[in-house]
Write a structure and sequence with these properties.
alpha/beta, Rossmann fold, seven-stranded mixed beta sheet, five-stranded antiparallel beta sheet, 9 helices, about 30% helix
Length: about 240
Amino acid sequence: MPDALFSDPRLARVYDPLDPDRGDLDTYVDVIRGFGARVVLDVGCGTGTLISRLVDLGISVLGIDPAAASIDVALSKVDSDLAEFVVAEAPDIADDPTRHRNFDLATMTANVAQVFLEDEDWLATLRAIRTCLRPGGHLVFETRRPSDRAWKRWDKELTWRVVDVDGEGPVETWEQVTKVDDEYVTFDSPTIFRSDGERITSTSTLRFRTKDALQRTLLQTGFADVEVRDLPYAPGRGWLFVASA
């Protein structure tokens, strides 16, 4: 079940205005262009911000996400024959004989790779992506370094903000960690719509796997030539994994 932040229709509609700076996606655009990829699978595409950039470059993209509300937002803002959006997870696409299975590259941006809490789900996702890639294709994803302890910065004092959103008026939001249990970090994201006082709290849990563990799972699921780079937009705080199919 996707977090309310992505699956609640009202929250999905304000997701982009509340987080307008998506400079993090420059990393993926650069890698995609560097590999010359022309057909891309965006796993956990959310509201389609990366896809809107890729279609402008003439790149064909299939965006998948289990949150229908986020897909609805993506459909409303990306109008291109090069883009397709499906409410699905990677294994759904891999198991569908009618779907294209010859992608040049697959992406998991932002927190996507960390939402798979159970090893079984993470391995199934990697295997499915591997199935969907052409021989020699690439998987690119990011994850935070556990040693950076990013969750220490997830509190109301550091994350609180109010944004005036078209059609909604002032919207207040912040993040607050509620539990740290070894590799698992749980946090709340309250959102208050000041126009009518509605408060919706989304609760999320992310898993902070080690670099070695992530490399092992990639090799275990058929990937090769696993390269681990420093994350360009957050040096010292995250890794960018690039693996070959």
